[in-house]
Design goal:
Blueprint lengths: L8 H20 L3 H16 L3 H11 L4 H17 L3 H26 E3 L3 E3 L6 H21 L3 H26 L3 H33 L6
Antiparallel strand pairs: 1-2
């Protein structure tokens, strides 16, 4: 099967859902703790980053755009299709769409407030970073092992994807004045959703191949 078993998967689902729930409570009730984290992270990333690191943040910022992300998602979907993983292709597309709808709903619940009328705060989780996290996870965990057989090279490329995501997070804080909590929400919710979607794929992929009568690998 395309997605390998992981004994820690259920534990990771619980841990990251709990982390996101804790973060959500802090944000919904406007706790001082979150203001300290957001303001501290913004101060450091906006003003105290060394020049060498700043160049890397600028590099990460090149990817922090929907007009780059969406074609990349189409490319990954097409690659899964041409590798004859048609169920996996639809799983990837559906999980991305559902994550967006959930993120919008959660953001509305957490950030709606009334100041001379209803207003919404910044999206938590940030959808751009949420989608990038799932895309990079798909590349690192699912596609890369099928294309790169050298274990050290796979580990190195996985580290590159992790660093790239954090560079995009810092670029969003610098350029878009995004709160750090929004990026943190993308990390917690995104990894929870990724592990949950992997679990659902392993559990239901064979069933859907049978129901849809598709000649495909799973």
């Amino acid at each position: 099967m395309l997605i390998q078993p992981d004994k820690l998967r259920k534990l990771l689902i619980l841990v990251f859902s709990a982390l996101f729930l804790f973060l959500a409570i802090q944000i919904r009730f406007d706790m001082l703790f979150m203001h300290v984290i957001d303001n501290g992270a913004s101060l450091v990333i906006q003003n105290l980053i060394p020049h060498g690191v700043q160049n890397w943040i600028n590099f990460g910022g090149l990817f922090a755009h929907y007009w780059i992300l969406v074609p990349a998602m189409v490319l990954v979907s097409s690659l899964l299709y041409f590798m004859n993983y048609k169920i996996a292709m639809w799983w990837f597309i559906i999980t991305q769409v559902l994550s967006m709808l959930l993120a919008l709903t959660i953001s509305f619940i957490l950030q709606i407030h009334w100041v001379s009328g209803p207003k919404l705060g910044p999206a938590i989780p940030n959808i751009l970073l949420l989608w990038w996290l799932q895309l990079l996870a798909t590349i690192a965990v699912i596609i890369m092992p099928n294309l790169v057989k050298n274990r050290r090279m796979r580990l190195g490329l996985t580290m590159v994807t992790i660093i790239l995501w954090w560079l995009m997070l810092m670029a969003c804080i610098q350029r878009n004045d995004m709160p750090f909590s929004s990026g943190l929400g993308s990390l917690f919710f995104g990894y929870f959703w990724w592990q949950l979607s992997e679990y659902q794929y392993r559990k239901r992929a064979k069933h859907w191949r049978h129901v849809l009568e598709i000649d495909t690998l799973i």
